[in-house]
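Input sequence (333 aa), recorded before submission:
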Amino acid sequence: MKFAHLMTTTLLLLAANAAVAETTLRIGIQDDPDMLDPHRSRTYSGRLVYTALCDKLVDVNPDLTYAPQLATAWNWSEDGKTLTMTLRDGVTFHDGEVFDAAAVKFNLDRARTLPDSLRKSELASVESVEVIDAKTVEIKVKQPDATLISQLSDRAGMMLAPKASATDVASRPVCSGPYKFVQRVQQDRIVLERFDNYWNKQAYHFDKVIFLPIPDTSVRLANLRSGDLDIIERVAPTDVKTAKADSHVQVFSTPGLGYMQLMYNTNNGDKANTPMGKDKRVRKAFELAIDRDAINQVVFEGLYAPSAQPFPKNSPYYDKDLPLPTRDVEASK
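Predicted structure, token format:
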């Protein structure tokens, strides 16, 4: 059973003092990122920080289509085994190093070969990365890979400054995003400041962005309502009514890509030797007995959308021919 997380809720406090809001944006996040190295990190909260800190080769639009970021264009060879990317001109890293094809090769090779890289599996299809000229790079794959562009729109495609990344990255990451690293105090805050040489700096107006990890959802909301925070993420469904009742708070909900699922062990060791693992009729009966709407209403305050697939309805991969199963207790017996 798959239960799609189609609502990601964010709250924005209407700042009483516009001058302060234009200077510093304080964001309450659910947990402290593990490490600020896109090739080695695993946390969702780290992704939130990277959005301000590290540009990627490819971005994703709200309608889930791909958009240029550090790569302005890309195309596949006829055999689907060579991806050629044209890179954005006039981009520099936060330390002044120039972004070019050699930097792309450094990053993709690092992500593929670093001993503790968590991006290895995401780039497993890549055979080599070749520099054609300063603004052109070719990525050769072992076999056609329809997922590669998607991988390059996430942490596998984030670019670090090669010279600054020769040693420890996590303690002071140097990227090319709209904000550059200033300070990190573990379990307390991550401070970024606006990068004046950013290629699209006119789109960013805050002088500083501060990420503050606050694990307790109710405490995060209380800090927002008191004015100590400007934005919080991953609002608990049980807190949404309270937030909506506060005239100083705005609630924003948007379709997300996360989902919850139940998985069956059907062929992995002795623990698969159960009626659920070996008899598809039992699994079908369980599927028919589930009341997805009840789960949504009771657990998630009706904020999420039940589904039978891992894609939201606004995804180009959503299958309209895969209907949501209707609960039928009699048929499940």
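Checked by second reader. The chain has two domains: 1-30+214-333, 31-176.
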